[in-house]
Amino acid sequence: MIDLYEIDGFLDDAARAEIVAELDRIGGAPATVLSADPGGRVQPAVRKTTRLAVSPETRARVRDTLMRRAAEIGAHFGVELRECEDPQFLRYETGDFFVPHQDGNTPMVYDDSRFRRVSAVIFLSHRAEQDAPGTYGGGSLVFHGPSTGPPVQVAAEGRPGSLVTFRAETTHEVTPVTHGVRYTIATWFR
Ligand SMILES: O=C(O)CCC(=O)C(=O)O
Ligand SMILES: [Fe+2]
After folding, report:
1. Is the pLDDT of residue 106 over 90?
2. Domains defined for the chain, CATH in brackets
């Protein structure tokens, strides 16, 4: 079973629109992209997305909103969540993706990610089959069931302003974006 805990309207529409406007502004200025390589792309075979450097106020605002729901989210997963990492603001353009991976709490990797208990993704953009301004296509956040069982795949609804949380060891991917720009915020509760 894939255990997802979703909160619709996690960000109200005014807050969501303000964040999108800020991301649109930053997205046009490649110099502000946080990344090791000059193009702002990391490990292109694994992941193609851009992390945007938003203002400290916006980061703090999103983090506060997340922490206000930490007890509720932790109760769902039966774990105590004390803190969350600095939220990452992600921009996926046409062709961008993130291959199946786990965010943490997995025996495969022994690094700081092992302290991640619950992953959280906030959806900011409108999804639409047809290419229309302000929408994106493709870019589904798809969860995969345990490799020991029959193949199970579940896609998040991804309504704008909604939050989806899942155990950090749950395998998930973002399928390639086919048109438009997809913005999400990702963070991890510990
Ligand atoms: O953008 C998303 O929907 C998910 C991002 C993700 O999986 C990650 O940053 O680890
Ligand atoms: Fe992830």
Report:
1. no
2. 4-189 (2.60.120.620)
